[in-house]
Specification:
Layout lengths: L16 H19 L7 H14 L3 E3 L6 E3 L3 H8 L3 H16 L7 H24 L4 H27 L5 H10 L1 H21 L23
Antiparallel strand pairs: 1-2
Helix pairs in contact: 1-4, 1-5, 2-3, 2-4, 3-4, 3-5, 3-6, 4-5, 5-6, 6-7, 6-8
């Protein structure tokens, strides 16, 4: 079995035409939502997160129990920072990964965008909910960072199991097993990043510290 098949980003020739077409339809929907009323001041942040997502594919974790390595995905980070703009960074990053690194495929670009982008979008939507519920910053990052990767791996598992051109059941199971370390690493990584950003630059996460008072508040006229 070729070790490249262990990647979350599915390659050309792995899936049936129906699944490939459905993937592009899903990507079109995600991008329509992401592109709606994009502001000029959002473009630099989208570019930075696209670059981070792309570079993550070159950070490989060698596995001792399987004859392959896996890489970071960072879809949780992309989702928490970009919110509904996350599919933009994901789709561009996946396209660059195939064009420059031959990772993934052109025919599977739509489905790969859905597999990685839907959990990123969910992480962006859940972040303010967890904050309002009083979940600590580090715990928020762990839950969303690890959860986004786990969801992407699970969606990849479903695609291989139900949409594969061949019998991919054993491969799908091995992909799940191989990415358990990535779930743990990305959960801890996003936990640290969220804790740091909450203190030094909370606006990147769309949050304002509770202790911060409104600017230019008029002073009490009473003595």
């Amino acid at each position: 079995m070729h070790t490249a098949l262990f990647a979350v980003h599915l390659g050309d020739g792995a899936l049936s035409d129906v699944w490939l077409a459905s993937g592009f339809a899903g990507m079109a929907l995600l991008l329509a939502v992401a592109l709606y009323r994009v502001r000029e001041d959002e473009v630099p942040r989208i570019g930075v997160l696209t670059a981070a997502f792309f570079v993550a594919s070159s950070v490989h974790i060698k596995l001792a129990v399987l004859p392959t390595s896996v890489h970071l995905i960072l879809n949780g980070l992309v989702g928490v920072v970009l919110g509904r703009r996350a599919p933009l960074a994901v789709s561009i990053g996946l396209g660059l990964q195939f064009a420059l690194l031959q990772h993934g495929g052109w025919s599977t670009l739509g489905l790969n965008t859905c597999i990685v982008g839907v959990p990123a979008l969910a992480a962006g939507l859940l972040y303010p909910v967890l904050r309002r519920l009083g979940v600590p910053a580090f715990a928020r990052g762990v839950l969303l960072g690890g959860g986004a990767v786990a969801a992407a791996v699970l969606l990849n598992f479903v695609a291989l199991l139900l949409g594969g051109k061949y019998e991919w059941e054993r491969l799908a199971q091995l992909v799940l097993l191989a990415h358990l370390p990535v779930v743990a690493v990305e959960g801890a990584m996003l936990g640290v990043l969220v804790s740091y950003l909450e203190k030094v630059k909370p606006e990147m996460l769309g949050s304002v510290p509770a202790q911060q008072e409104p600017a230019n508040q008029p002073e009490d006229a009473t003595w």
